[in-house]
Amino acid sequence: MEAFPLHQIAVDKLSVYINRSHTFIHSTVLICMIVYRVSSFLFNKDSQAIPLIPWLLIFSSELLLGFIWLMKSAYNWRPISRSVFLERLPPDDDLPPIDVFICTADPVREPPLKVMNTVLSSMALDYPPGKLSVYLSDDAGSSLTLYAIHEAWDFGRLWVPFCRKYAIKNGCPEAYFSTTIDDHGNKIGFQEEQKNIEVEYEKFKESLRIAGESIGAKSSQDHPAMIEIIGSKDPVIADSDDAKMPRVVYVSREKRPSHPHNFKAGSLNVLLRVSGIISNSPYILVLDCDMYCNDSTSARQAMCFHLDQKMCSSLAFVQFPQKFGNISKNDIYDAALRYIFVVMWPGMDGLRGPILSGTCFYIKREALYGRSREKDVDLVQLKQSFGPSNEFLRSLKTKRTSHSDNKVVDDQDSGTALLQETRFVGSPTYETNTAWGKEIGFLYDSVVEDYFTGFILHCRGWSSVFCNPQRPAFLGSSPTNLSDTLIQGTRWNTGLLEVFLSRFCPIIYGLGRVPLLDCMCYAYFSAQPLYCFPVWCLAIVPQLCLLNGIPVYPRVSSPWFIPYSVAFLSTLGIHLWDVLRTGGTTRIWWNEWRVWMIKSVTAYFYGSLDALLKLFGVKEASFVPTNKVADGEQVKRYQLGIYDFQASTMLLAPLVTLVILNMVSFIWGIGKSTLAGGWGELFGQIFLSFFILIVNYPIIEGMMLRKDKGRIPPSATLFSLACSFLILLFGYTAFFYRS
Ligand SMILES: *[C@@H]1O[C@H](CO)[C@@H](O)[C@H](O)[C@H]1NC(C)=O
Questions:
Q1: Is 92 marked within a binding site?
Q2: What is the pTM for the complete model shown?
Q3: Catalytic positions (predicted)?
């Protein structure tokens, strides 16, 4: 076994070389820039010196950008990629069992058919069926979802054996039937069988549609616990064929308006306890309900790491990238979050491992049980941490290897008692005065429970790996319009900045607990919303200075101009390199700049405001704007690479205001330098405005040239005009007024 490792890593040597050179050059020029800022302020006594307030704003923006860049450079230190050797895994009998957790919360936004496709795809994982249990958490307690999972089970009894028989990699029926060529290049041999299954699938869909009409997609925030092992009650079904089926469990935890339910982390913790009693598998796959398994071998791929003798004692989870099936080639909204999964996670993988990313990961159950699990801890202490369920406490001590060890569930009477117990651990009061959510399970301290839980796991000495195979292991769909992208971003960024401003701030809490570079990676991720400050400042202050004839950057002929131009070019350059080496195009590179600016002045900005308000105790206030209803045209425009600006004015106004302001300053600057017969000292500022304008050209177009429904509404433009006027007025009186 030692001689044949289950996986191997490849360090991207060229990248390491280029990245580290960039880090060296960039830090040198940053120091020069700081020296210039300070000295030009202290020693420049002429009338054109920058007044104090603009100087402070520009300098602190530059410092903050420098700080965030420094944190970010940790991702570039040692990017690696991994490959696995499935054929070297132990025989099926020796593989450990796996529980799959799928969470859904709203039968309207997450239609049962889609959720069931995810359930079916995970039932069809290429793994011994006796060692696979699929748990669906339905937080809405919807009878439609319960009905759907029964139907899915019935269809699954045909689908799962079919997938196994023909080694179908894509276990999601909807995706499978919508393609014309299968994984093996259209096998003719099972055409007939394939058609039959397709007919059954259509019937299954139809039954859900009819049920949707009669039952209705209702969700409830006030309902008792409802836990059911699907298929096991029906005596007819309990025939030998079912040995080929994984176990499927429907879990709807008890919800009461009077008790906090802690969102997704709360339902994952209920699943941890319920599954602990029912199957207690040592490994868990967590999936969002819209992320189906696109490669049935992902479980085996994950086991190549979890079963590796050398790393398994410290390995907490294997993270797969989130990939999306509905991303267009140019992806103008960066809906794929490309940079995270092709640059940042592989970068962290070369350190202690990637950040836990909410979905698509195989995690070790033991890692989630915290420190309180040591063998010699007595029962009283265990009860204090894990709650009073004896059945669950017993599960902490035992390891089950497959269904067949699990006599209790199959026996009718004790089966009923067991279900009773699962309802008990699924009640909202179960966690009162225990360590759930504080030290055990998924943690409640932050709304970005994945990021936070992963961070704490790393702090406790666990590691993780990033597995990014050629064929996407999981596929989902991502919102592909401006409004949804920014609103989602605002929520995440509130959570991330909250962590940064809390006592768990990665650079403070993490120091000494995780290696410095990992600390920096975590810090960057949570500090990202702070980009809003420098981006806002640098899109306003140098421009106001320009209008007042005050230079803020060195003249082109000055040696101080060199660090500024090097910093600018090396930032553009390293990003271009990152995009190109990971399979992107120059167009994507340019898009990512635009999306970054757009997010900085909206999602990061509102997210930061929210986080700050919460910090100061204003809990109710929220800057998360409301969703606009999407229409079919939006999807079309996205695919054509045309921006669709149907979003609330709250999101549009900052963008349009800044663009107008920069247009004014650019035109003014050009006019002035033409009259003066040269750029003089104002080149830097004129160029900055120019850069902002060309990056954001689609906004100018949406504002002035387009007439379609996706343009920027004139009302938003007018409002923004008023805003820019106010900024000009305010800037003039506050910054430059000299008595
Ligand atoms: C991608 O999927 C999301 C969520 O289902 C949907 O809102 C969006 O319109 C889809 N985009 C495309 C281009 O199909």
A1: no
A2: 0.93
A3: 139, 450
